[in-house]
Amino acid sequence: MFANRRYPSLLAPIVACLVALFTAAGCSSLVSDKSVIQNAQGFDEGIKAAEIKDPDVDAYFQRIGARIIQAARESDKAHWGPPSHFSSSEPQDWMFKGVQFHLVNSKTLNAFTTGGQHVYIYNQLFQMCHSEDELAAVMSHEFGHIYSRHVQKGQVRNYGIMAAALGLGAVGYVAGGKEKGADYGQKAAALGLVAGNFAGMGFTRSDEAQADECGFHFYCLAGWDPDHFGDFFQTMIDKGLDKGSALTSDHPTLASRLQIARERARTMPQLPPRQQLRKPPVASTAEFRRYQQAAARASSTTPDDTTLAKSQKLLAAIPRSCLAPVEPPDQQKAREELLQDLKKDQPQATQGTQAKPAAARHTRSTPPSNEVIGQPAR
User: Fold this and answer.
1) Which of 39-43, 281-285, 353-357 has the lowest mean pLDDT?
2) How far is Cα 263 from Cα 67, in angstroms, rounded to an integer?
3) What is the total count of domains within the chain?
4) Domain presence at residue 364
5) Mean pLDDT of the chain
6) Within 13 A of 307's CA, how many CA atoms are on the CB side?
7) Could you tell me if residue 88 is inside a domain?
8) For a disulfide at 122, which of 63, 106, 247, 289, Cβ 3.0-4.6 Å?
9) Domain range for 21
10) Is 111 helix (H, G, I), strand (E, B) or coil?
11) How many CA atoms lie within 13 A of 32 on its CB side?
12) In-domain check, residue 359
């Protein structure tokens, strides 16, 4: 069993998560950047099994991301952006260094960020993109959520729930140790999300509009064509994904977002002229297709083991607010299946600190004082 002196390191994140949850429910202050970054790292530990590891594709994503981040850094220096970006007294250079853009192996159409230094693009979305412009627009939008500190907005209860749930993922990672840390972390994070109103985890209509505005600004400043920022909205509309009423939905319709993107491109300031902002794409059209093909091959050859299957279910259950104005049926189904799985697996995932059976203790070859456990993700 774990040595008693180890317990404080395990209990501290749990207490911090609960404090974050209840603070967010009744307080208008921001959740700290540091806590969001740590919780996001904990979530990433639990979802690594689903991340596509092709080195060329990964390098391509980071190169696109680097252009977006540089544009955001320039915007920050010019004091451009929503008030929420400048609302923290903490140093904010963290969002301009060390941010990773992950391609995840999933047949779900989605992209999301946990608000820290991780952005996730689903392979289904990547394969649906017709050009780098579409991919860069989605990635710019997601970084817009980070730049605007949407997860940190403590006055919105669901963001506190998200942060607490992701923190529980980090706790699960500790409890599982090296061998089962990712599995336990994933279960604990999912449990926290389900228990904390999983369906409401997504961003609001105003957040999405703000991320579109920031994303458009970064996208143009980074050198992509303003006229193509809204192309992926059109692609989704063509797929019949713009369902629901603009009056009843919590999120803007794809048609309205496309219209605003086109209007922004038409009326964007001409100083400096857009011709001076334009840069060649990171990859040519032919290279872009090769990256898509490489991602498809990597996705099809990834072992479909139990850990990956659980990752897929978690990825499917995460809200699509950045893309879809209504909740798709597969999201609801995945959430229900997660809840059923967690009810069965919860004892295994939450009792990682309990003593081992007597027989196991008698056959121990390593003294308790020397036992090594997984450390919290940092």
Assistant:
1) 353-357
2) 24
3) 1
4) no
5) 75
6) 17
7) yes
8) 106
9) 9-352
10) strand
11) 9
12) no
* Per-residue confidence (pLDDT) for residue 163, from 0 to 100: 46
Q: Are strands 111-113 and 118-122 parallel, antiparallel or unpaired?
A: antiparallel
The number of C-alpha atoms within 13 Å of 186 and in the hemisphere containing its C-beta is: 25
Residue 338: how many other CB atoms lie within 10 Å: 22
Domain-embedded: residue 142: yes
Give 104-144 pLDDT, tens digit per residue: 999 999 999 988 999 999 999 999 999 999 999 999 999 99
Nearest to 165 by CA among 143, 136, 197: 197
**Residue 17, H or E segment:** helix 7-26
pLDDT given at position 197: 40
Residue with token string 């603070």: 23
Which tokens go with 68? Answer: 């977006």
> Do 232 and 141 form a contact (C-beta atoms < 8 A)?
no
**Strand intervals (E) in 22-135:** 100-104, 111-113, 118-122
Cα distance from N-terminal residue to C-terminal residue, the chain: 24
- The predicted structure's pLDDT at residue 162: 47
What DSSP designation does 356 have?
Answer: P
Q: Which residue has the tokens 């904010």?
A: 92
Look at the block and give the residue holding tokens 């599982």: 176
C-alpha–C-alpha distance, residues 355 and 245, integer Å: 54
103 burial type by CB count under 10 A (0-12 exposed, 13-18 middle, 19+ buried)? buried
How many C-beta atoms surround the C-beta of residue 260 within 10 A?
18
Per mean pLDDT, which range of 136-145, 183-192, 283-292 is the poorest? 183-192
Instruction: Give the residue among 103, 141, 137 at the shortest CA–CA distance from 122.
Output: 103
- Work out the burial of residue 8: count CB atoms within 10 Å of its CB; fewer than 13 is exposed, 13-18 middle, 19 or more buried: exposed
